[in-house]
Predict the structure.
Amino acid sequence: MNNDIRTVAFIGAGNMSRSIIGGLIQNGYPSDRIIASNPSTGKLEALAEQFGIRTTQDNLAAVAEADVLVLAVKPQLMAEVCAPIAELDLEGKLAISIAAGVTCERMSAYLGGHASLVRTMPNTPSMLGLGMTGLYADPVVGEADRAFAGTLMGAVGEILWLEQEAGIDQVIACAGSSPAYFFLFMEAMEQGAAALGVKPEDARLMIEQAAIGAAQMVRQNPQSSLAELRAQVTSKGGTTHEAVLTLEQQGLRDAVKDAMQAAVTRAQEMAKQF
Ligand SMILES: NC(=O)c1ccc[n+]([C@@H]2O[C@H](COP(=O)([O-])OP(=O)(O)OC[C@H]3O[C@@H](n4cnc5c(N)ncnc54)[C@H](OP(=O)(O)O)[C@@H]3O)[C@@H](O)[C@H]2O)c1
């Protein structure tokens, strides 16, 4: 863990903030240097009780004290939430946005021209500490601030720094949206198992365990390409070969490629919205 300790204010204390705060505390980050701000009190009380952090319903009080702001409200609320924050003196404060679809340019405008910004794109498995986050820093952001942002998002999983902001859309296609591709594939397998007469609970167990096992095989064999791993379990003329051939003939690769392009196109459209 980076031992650069700063006061961090989470603006919006929802699911994503909760996960990052949990990860930070688990990594030994001091709880008295974390503040969460949220309009309703239920989530704040739960965070204070579970992690011993400081909480407030006053965004401006949290920002005034903080060295780092984590902007973690829904994208459609970002303009409204940032307007009063932009009136404060933000000099020297690093702003980290986790909002999907809000570009650095837009975020900077919301914050009154503040440029010390890191835009991040986490995904849902961050809730389990198994997240994948892409990060893009405005060119004015210095090394120490970049490292701090990396440590913050690294508290909930792997991180990937992007050289261009457009890389965020690629992260959306590859990691932000992709847990749903895997869920869809597993759902299709569940239906396939039902058609074979497998009991739902047995299908769930087998699909879940095979997915975890396959993911672990990928992780534990970095020297093997994905194609090699597939070939290793696909003997010619065997059952797996027949199944994989069917998927190939049905156009799985093209469908996935088109789906990923569709995610990028939608991300580009959404970036114009907020
Ligand atoms: N969840 C994911 O997997 C994921 C992945 C990538 C990116 N993101 C991004 O992360 C951000 C947060 O997502 P989330 O899933 O954590 O959403 P969430 O659970 O709905 O959290 C958003 C929080 O913002 C609070 N809020 C609303 N108005 C506010 C205000 N004026 N000032 C301060 N806080 C306010 C809400 O409080 P109340 O409930 O009391 O209204 C809520 O607790 C979003 O921008 C989203 O695009 C999420």
In short: The chain has a mean pLDDT of 96.
